[in-house]
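Design job #97: recover the sequence.
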């Protein structure tokens, strides 16, 4: 850490010193304590790690992360950058919550606690620390170290740890994962767009030297490759993935109840909607359960009631047939938005007609496919219609 408390109660901040001589005069013979837990700390300086204070015997109860050189550099760079936005304080100890924020920022009567996270953190701990900040009307900003992400691309495999840092802070704002690289002094904003399966996620990302609380995503960069990638994944699913053990319940349901093989599900099942990132289950799985439970056997011109669709869907979640991701930092929005988006997409594909906000009406009957080639051809037509409306 960079901040310590002297015996007389005053504080010393290492980043305030531009030369070692002045620092050496101020610390000679001095005793220092951790501002958070009161334990004795000492100044450490080596060839690899930068100058910092470290606890002598005990671990600090206000911090759960060992400080690496990368973490120390990240805090220092973030502190320098955030001073342009308001009053920034380094390693502020918040007495009411017994937490030490890496950087505390006061800006336009708002308070923010920046946490630069470079090691794994259990989701319950993340939720607890977030709730403690909120209890004091402090908005926590969780920043993941860029080295924990690796190279960026429009198709990424995000771990549960990385997904837990997806956040938003206002109604209508797109959820994003915020990362920071101390070597480049740059912020990386990753916006999950949609997921075909539980691993691969289509990402839109932006790189900036500026911090934004509610960044605006641009999805134009992923439009060109979306069709090819999605159709390839759909083809692999029909030929191969539908035979996997994880699809056995759905496969059995299709044969016994729908009287069709899982490989020949309607092309309107398994199409991209923006909020599909909420699901751990592959997009074809959760859309298939929704479609078969609420639409497939419904007669043409019959009413489809949105609350009933959501109720049946939630029953599938309770039975763990459909799995939802844990996104503790997404304050605005939920997985039900994906259901509504999907129904609206079915309206644009002329499968349904929207009567009002909660009532839809079925417009056409599904025609079973004879073979896989026919199904793949319909997948192409549906995907072209989906992309044409974006």
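Job complete. Output follows.
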């Amino acid at each position: 850490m960079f901040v310590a408390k002297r015996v007389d109660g005053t504080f010393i901040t290492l980043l305030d010193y531009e030369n070692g001589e002045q620092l050496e005069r101020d610390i000679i013979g001095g005793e220092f304590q951790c501002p958070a837990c009161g334990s004795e700390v000492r100044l450490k300086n080596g060839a690899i790690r930068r100058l910092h204070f470290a606890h002598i015997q005990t671990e600090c109860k206000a911090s759960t992360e060992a400080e690496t050189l990368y973490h120390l550099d990240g805090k220092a760079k973030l502190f320098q950058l955030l001073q342009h936005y308001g009053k920034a304080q380094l390693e502020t100890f918040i007495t009411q919550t017994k937490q030490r924020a890496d950087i505390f920022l006061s800006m336009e009567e708002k308070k923010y606690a920046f946490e630069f996270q470079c090691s794994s953190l259990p989701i319950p701990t993340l939720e607890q620390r977030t709730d403690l900040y909120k209890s004091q009307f402090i908005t926590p900003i969780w920043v993941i170290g860029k080295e924990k992400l690796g190279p960026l691309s429009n198709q990424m495999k995000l771990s549960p740890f990385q997904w837990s840092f997806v956040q938003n802070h206002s109604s209508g704002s797109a959820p994003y994962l915020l990362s920071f690289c101390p070597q480049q002094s740059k912020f990386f904003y990753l916006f999950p767009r949609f997921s075909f399966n539980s691993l691969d996620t289509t990402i839109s990302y932006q790189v900036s030297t500026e911090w934004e609380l509610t960044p605006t995503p641009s999805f134009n960069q992923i439009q060109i490759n979306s069709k090819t990638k999605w159709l390839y994944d759909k083809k692999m699913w029909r030929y191969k993935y539908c035979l996997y053990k994880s699809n056995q319940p759905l496969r059995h349901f299709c044969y016994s109840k729908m009287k069709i093989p899982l490989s020949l599900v309607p092309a309107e099942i398994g199409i991209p909607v923006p909020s599909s990132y909420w699901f751990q289950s592959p997009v074809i799985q959760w859309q298939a359960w929704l479609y078969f439970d609420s639409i497939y056997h419904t007669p043409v011109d019959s009413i489809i009631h949105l609350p009933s669709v959501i109720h049946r869907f939630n029953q599938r979640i309770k039975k763990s047939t459909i799995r939802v991701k844990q996104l503790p930092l997404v304050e605005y929005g939920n997985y039900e938005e994906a259901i509504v988006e999907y129904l609206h997409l079915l309206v644009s594909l002329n499968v349904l007609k929207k009567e009002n906000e909660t009532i839809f009406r079925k417009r056409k009957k599904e025609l079973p496919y004879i073979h896989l080639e026919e199904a793949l051809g319909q997948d192409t037509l549906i995907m072209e219609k989906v992309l044409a409306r974006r």
